[in-house]
Fold this sequence. Notes:
Blueprint: H1 4-13, H2 19-36, H3 48-58, H4 63-76, H5 80-84, H6 88-95, H7 102-118, H8 126-130, H9 137-147, H10 157-168, H11 176-189, H12 195-208, H13 227-231, H14 270-273
The protein binds iron/sulfur cluster.
Amino acid sequence: xxxxxxxxxxxxxxxxxxxxxxxxxxxxxxxxxxxxxxxxxxxxxxxxxxxxxxxxxxxxxxxxxxxxxxxxxxxxxxxxxxxxxxxxxxxxxxxxxxxxxxxxxxxxxxxxxxxxxxxxxxxxxxxxxxxxxxxxxxxxxxxxxxxxxxxxxxxxxxxxxxxxxxxxxxxxxxxxxxxxxxxxxxxxxxxxxxxxxxxxxxxxxxxxxxxxxxxxxxxxxxxxxxxxxxxxxxxxxxxxxxxxxxxxxxxxxxxxxxxxxxxxxxxxxxxxxx
Length: 274
Ligand code: SF4
């Protein structure tokens, strides 16, 4: 059981940003995405199968390596029916050299299930999606958001890291309670409109500006209100080994540095000044 001091720290850690801060975050993120978002083939489709293929390929693998394989895979297996009718070992060979060969096997099993239970489609509700072996909470959220264009949160490693650094700043991002809180934050921070862009933006931002190592804090549009940067904290530890406060440094802002991204409302800002 946590001590009283520990409990107070946890409660503080799990606080949520004000409405104005959430709006500031969303605006900064979408503005950045409008200028810097990547044009990727799976962002130009709403075919659930294509999006599922991209999501499973992108697990543990960088975009540059996924791009050629994504095209090759869809040429060879253009639909759930095509993949379900293929030999599983052939699918694993086609997957090479992406690695983590459990992934093509899962994809193949999902295809068979989609054909067997749903006539080669994916259901549009999250609960049924999660009943598929191989579709976890992140993939279900990605399908709801990217394929079915629903207002659904996502939480992959990039998204968790960005939310943790901007909103929380210190603590253990991998702790069970924190993970649950990050899911809640992901839902809470979502806009009413442009949810598709917002979720894609979070992932791009995490990959390009706020990676696990060497985040680009001095040029980051969130720097004015990022909790980790404001604290001059050591890295969150997401995506790194060791303790939650080990890893590459997030430099403290220089003294007297003007802070950007002020609140838009008069509310006390938890994101900007906690
Ligand atoms: S200021 Fe640094 S840690 Fe904060 S969001 Fe930007 S890149 Fe990430």
